[in-house]
Amino acid sequence: MSSELNASSVPEPVEGTPTGSIRRPKTTGLAAGPAAPGVAKVDPILVVDAVQRRFGGLVAVDVDHVEIPRGAITALIGPNGAGKTTLFNLLCGFDRPNTGTWSFDGKNLAGIPSFKVARMGQVRTFQLTKALSLLTVLENMKLGAPKQKGEGFWASLFPFLWRTQDAEIEVKARELLTRFKLDAKEKDFAAALSGGQRKLLEMARALMSDPTLVMLDEPMAGVNPALTQSLLDHILDLKEQGMTVLFVEHDMHMVRHIADWVVVMAEGRVVAEGPPEEVMEDPAVVDAYLGAHQDVDLGAVTGRIPVLADTAAVRLREKIEAEAEAELEEADSPEEGSA
């Protein structure tokens, strides 16, 4: 009887995410309709409308509509130069679009600077980590805490005003460092950490502000394989603690196993959306992104290049191919006769 109960308490392998010894169930039922670019979500936390960013004549981002589901892990994938990081910068206030609006948790973020966006509960990490190298690991963590009384000039002159709060912040920082297995490094300078440890530090520091949405830009880039499993587990932990995760990644194996929803970008546009299993089998994604057919131009998928179903053009192509084959046969026949 006990064995039956134990077996029933473990999520099915199809629905679970194999990380470590624990299988974590994926979140389903996120979309209000069939999976397609711009599909409405049941409970979106981030909504983007008609956002476009141009650099001279280059359109880096041209997103008509996309929604990020609340309480889930969403992966943003696409080839290099697809506009993923540029979109991240726009949504977080690090850059401004030429046109468009977007909202976080029902609040319009257009024109809001990055530090105010972070205070509202939307934080991000960077592909190239931004740890302050000449501060210790613990000092880096304490910088992430919001509304510190000692940050003001006059208040900083009177320690009794902020000492209690500072002690509380330090306790919280040490708890997070222990959770991310960086507690032994708290007195080391951030410059002494490895690339993977810096990624962990940046993620831990982001949690000092108790965010609602965590945006991770290529969290696995440059990370030692020994730390990959640890990072995966920490990302899954964020979801279990009630946070929403949006991350950029090129590792398709990772995306398939931890993402609940996948958004695919190419040439600045969203070309596909859906659960990872469906997106990986989408012909548009397979042909243009994964490179199954080299003769398919990416512009045909994004709509930049119109695809014409011209019967005459098809016949012409067949005729050219037939003539080419005939020429090859004629070239081979004299050699066979002389032999």
Task: Please describe what this structure looks like.
This protein is α/β, with parallel strands linked by helices. The chain folds into 3 domains: 19-131 and 194-302, Rossmann fold; 135-192, no CATH class; 308-339. Helix content is 38%, strand content 21%. The chain has 13 helices and 12 strands. The protein has helices spanning 2-8, 84-92, 114-119, 137-143, 153-156, 163-179, 195-206, 225-240, 252-258, 276-280, 283-288, 298-302, 311-338, and strands spanning 16-19, 22-25, 44-55, 58-69, 73-77, 99-104, 107-108, 122-124, 213-217, 244-248, 261-266, 269-274. The protein has a 6-stranded mixed sheet with strand order 8-9-10-5-11-12, sandwiched between helices. It has a 4-stranded antiparallel sheet with strand order 4-3-6-7, covered by helices on one side. Strands 1-2 form a two-stranded antiparallel sheet. A hairpin with a 2-residue loop joins strand 11 and strand 12 (269-274). Helix 4 runs parallel beside helix 7. The model is unreliable at 1-21 (pLDDT under 50).
